Amino acid sequence: MATGKQDLDRLLPIEGVKIAAVQAGVRYANRYDVVVMALSAQCRTAGVFTQNAFCAAPVVLARQYLQSSQGRARYLLINTGNANAGTGQQGMADARNCCQSLAELTGVSADQVLPFSTGVIGERLPAQKIVAALPGAMDALQADNWLMAAKGIMTTDTRPKGLSVSLEHQGQRITVTGITKGAGMIKPNMATMLAFVATDADIAQELLQNLLRTAVEYSFNRITVDGDTSTNDCCMLVASGASGVVIDETDSDLLAQFSDLLNNLMIGLARQIIHDAEGARKFVTVQVNGGADSQECLKVAYAIAESPLVKTALTASDPNWGRILAAIGRAGVADLNVDLIDIYLGDVALVNQGGLAPDYTEAQGQSIMSQENIELRIELGRGQVSETVWTSDLSEEYVRINASYRS
Amino acid sequence: MATGKQDLDRLLPIEGVKIAAVQAGVRYANRYDVVVMALSAQCRTAGVFTQNAFCAAPVVLARQYLQSSQGRARYLLINTGNANAGTGQQGMADARNCCQSLAELTGVSADQVLPFSTGVIGERLPAQKIVAALPGAMDALQADNWLMAAKGIMTTDTRPKGLSVSLEHQGQRITVTGITKGAGMIKPNMATMLAFVATDADIAQELLQNLLRTAVEYSFNRITVDGDTSTNDCCMLVASGASGVVIDETDSDLLAQFSDLLNNLMIGLARQIIHDAEGARKFVTVQVNGGADSQECLKVAYAIAESPLVKTALTASDPNWGRILAAIGRAGVADLNVDLIDIYLGDVALVNQGGLAPDYTEAQGQSIMSQENIELRIELGRGQVSETVWTSDLSEEYVRINASYRS
After folding, report:
1. Contact at 8 Å (CB) between A61 and A95?
2. Chain A contacts of B391, Cβ < 8 Å?
3. What residues of A are annotated to the active site?
4. Which of residues 3-42 of A touch B (CB under 8 A)?
5. Does domain A17-275 have CATH number 3.40.630.10?
6. Which residue of A has its CA nearest to B225?
């Protein structure tokens, strides 16, 4: 199951970035499982990585290489089928080996190849298979291959995920294209998935990193499927500069415009993950308003978004406001005055001042809950801060998938 | 589904406590749904209540009455089928009304009747039906009715839960008997369920409260089914003094003996809840050793015990150590050195120093995971503190139950 539309809009190529997806047989035959993104020498790359204390070998290496090469990555080397996580020193050697091979093949230094892996944890990476597939990948590099790459990085995803946006500035066009993968083991801190985003804007390394951090904070760090943070998550942002448009602090309007564009693209990608959440029947927006600070809004939003009882009620299209109240009540907000709390389901007032709203009818609630897109709005009445989190329901299919897939 | 044995051992009567269970038709016909426990004038009662900010009306009232009557409760009035939660001022009036009626019927003051409700949230309590059932309950009071009471407080429970323990002291016997209910919406903070425990020991109010608090901390506050804390949880401890044995600080040996007895009874009751967890196929003990403090041990234990991915792997009898590692890694322990971590599945070393244990075989892991009782032991290598938490798996049946039951 998944929610939302099936088809991907066209993904626009980014000048300075070429892509190939090939079949290396990492875990399964006849499946595109190795993706190479080749970046021009002008490209600058920023990255944000998982906060999980158990980092997979490629995450450790990509973070290290990004630093030592000062963002001058020339290749992103991505495989699915094997996460190269929990593999110790052997895993580090295998990841290094793959990067080294591609570096030798292309004449760049090893730390200009950043590795990314997703798939089963705890099995040795078949580095040989990946290395063997690299010459074929070099031959297949093309600018217009984003869709293929989006397919090539899928694991339990049921559909490829990507988005392109652009803006005009003084007759010149800037484009941003991104792809992402992820369907389970999804929870912020950061970005519990892989995402690769590129733009043809010209952006210096430090600003690029700041733009990425902000965009991730309000997109991938605002989604949850099951509260489980993976060991392999990375989100990379590449700026090729090929459009000739420079983004920097001298033109703050353009910077703000670009930042909005990037944030919206990231939010769009993050939402696609939730649409494709394992076993999802519902796409749920949890908006918490009236908080004293961001942290308490997020506590309430995640208590709701990760409550198995709220999530199973969502699956059942049951407007079970008692479970929502109970989740808010245990969210750990100090001195919460429950008599100030309102809850809205779409436009319908469900709870008013901590009790059932006087005009609410079960038929109203049912009618909204039976839709695929559900908006829950909580008013805390404590201040002016708002936060929004996106999540899915918890269905029998989620259990079926995760009781059979060895992730 | 449930795990462990089906049958309840005999529950021993406690002199000074009489019990009746009657059919009041609160939600369903032909079901014992109102339980009255009548306490002798010598009884002292202690209580611990839910930490959820949304407290049900009976919780608010029971806490208040327990204080104003200084623990001299004469009746505990329990109903299932309706939690009287999220019912505002009306709910308070309904709860007060029930207590007042029983007080008038029996000639005690209203604050000597403590109300407890469990069941559906957000619907008005049918106080009339409960009041109408009270005279019949008075006629049915008997000392040996604990099993009937255990059945009378069930909601989604598939079996009654109770335990009796006793000890001899200088030729005199002290007995403790307790019953509990709960199967979903189970998570500490405190005691996400109802429990009623009585002893014939003679214990002053303040000590009784302290003994209860300690016992709850290591029993009901160490279990989780789904991380959802309910709005109605209460655990009450009654001491009738009828045995003539005084427990106080003058005989510290006896006090320690009794405290152990009580703690073990409470742990036994808490474990029964986990055995009967909604949809449970597995009874899982998560022991975390080698922590620097209790809090970090509990963070790790709960990250594992509440991870949907670990729980679905348990359902599938899959020794998926990658998911356990990932849960530990996101538990939020500062400066966690993953290279020190060992994981044991029963007696089998699964992870050694952060990587797969060299001698581990999948067959070993599978063989232990296929059992009903599973013990996970995590060694953090940071200090000397240990904590143990009990949990269940996450099965399709859990989703089915909670996608249909309106709790």
Report:
1. yes
2. none
3. 192
4. none
5. no
6. A308
- Please tell me the CATH code under which domain B283-402 is placed: 3.10.20.340
| A189, A232 contact by CB (below 8 A) | no
Q: Is A300 on the interface with B (CB under 8 A)?
A: no
Buried/exposed code over B310-343 (b: 16+ C-beta within 10 A; e: otherwise): bbbbbbbbbbbbbbbbbbbbbbebeebebeebbb
Tell whether the torsion through CA atoms of B73, B77, B83 and B88 is positive or negative.
negative
The H or E element containing residue A148 is: helix A146-152
Q: Is B192 a catalytic residue?
A: yes
Distance CA B273, CA B186 (A): 9
Question: Pick the residue with more confidence: A379 or B48?
Answer: A379
Q: Is the ipTM of this complex over 0.85?
A: no
Contacts of B382 in chain A (CB under 8 A): none
Q: How many Cβ atoms from other residues are within 10 Å of residue B138's Cβ?
A: 17
Residues 6+ apart with CB under 8 A from A117: A56, A57, A58, A78, A79, A80, A82, A83, A84, A85, A95, A125, A232
- In the prediction, which pLDDT does B228 show? 60
Contact, A106 vs A69, CB < 8 A? Answer: no
Contact flag A325-B88 (C-beta cutoff 8 Å)? no
Per-domain residue ranges of chain A: 17-275, 283-402
Q: From the first residue on, what is the mean pLDDT of each consecutive set of 10 residues in chain B (407 residues)?
A: 76 94 92 95 88 85 94 94 88 97 97 92 91 97 95 87 90 90 55 74 92 85 66 81 92 93 88 84 94 94 90 89 86 88 94 88 91 95 93 87 67
Residue in chain A lying closest to B321 (CA): A122
* Closest-approach residue (CA) in chain A for B86: A355
Decide the pairing of beta strands A355-356 and B44-49: unpaired
Residue A116 contacts residue A98 (beta carbons within 8 Å):
no
Binding residues of B for substrate: 155, 181, 192, 278, 402, 407
